[in-house]
Amino acid sequence: MPQASSPIGVFDSGVGGLSVLRALLAALPHERFVYLADSANAPYGERGDAFVAARTHAITQYLREQHDIKALVVACNTATAAAIHEVRSSHPDLLLVGLEPAIKSALAVTKTGHVGVIGTRGTLTSAKFGKLLASLADQAHFVVQPCDGLAHAIERSVALPVAPAAHPVESTETGALCKRYVNAMGTFGTAPGEMDTLVLGCTHYIFVAHELRTLVGPDVQFIETGEPVARQTKRLLDAAGLLQTAGSAGGNLSEAGTDATPSVLLLTTGPVAMMEAAAKRWLNLPAEHCRSVSVR
């Protein structure tokens, strides 16, 4: 049985879920984490539900058997939509946290009542998201835009140099895709009838926040899911008596053993070099934290 000292599992189709892991690390500084990127099969957003569900089950089983996780954060909107109900049924004893585009949070901040939502096609065309959207349709006007190829482009960009801020947005593949989809949505701004809020419905998208900000302007509010997911994870662990604290037995000192930074293991089914680059860029973690694994 998992103990308080057992790690928290986090998984995504690729490196996008590192944005959620970053929020978890900030909210739960004494926990251990095992992150798994299924990069060999990314992106999930353009695959069928059956495939995504099968991978979600396989990865959940792997993390339980190999790492004895005490909780699992499904840091992927598409996997949550396709499979989390099945995972709850198959693993009723596992603390489970999923993601969905945070359109409820957008309602709390929009002043114009016009909200943009971007995500993968798999997420935005899912029955789960459709039900959520329908339940809130009378409270705001939502413009929903699938962004085919954007998550995959963000994956590929991790090994590339960061483009200087002065460069045109469309000078990079990610920037060109952001421009295409933002332009297709309509007008952003704070005037009546304009979208003053943008929901980032894919964990990858926070990593192109600069490009999106350049396109929609300084006054549009971005809504993403990392911090709410971290708060929910903390609540569940606390309620279950599994929250790791500074004085808990089996603490998670760093490899040097001198400071109480979280112990983080980053696994990938794809090229380990991509994970190493992402870990350095977005978490400031060295390559020693990254490993390549096979999950069947």
Automatic annotation (TrEMBL):
Keyword NADP: no
Any GO molecular function: glutamate racemase activity
InterPro entries: Asp/Glu/hydantoin_racemase, Asp/Glu_race, Asp/Glu_racemase_AS_1, Glu_race
Domain of life: Bacteria
Keyword tags: Cell shape, Cell wall biogenesis/degradation, Isomerase, Peptidoglycan synthesis
Enzyme Commission number(s) of this protein: 5.1.1.3
Keyword Isomerase applies: yes
EC top class, as a word: isomerase
Record field: catalytic activity: L-glutamate = D-glutamate
Similarity section: Belongs to the aspartate/glutamate racemases family.
Protein name, as recorded: Glutamate racemase
Organism: Acidovorax temperans
Gene: murI
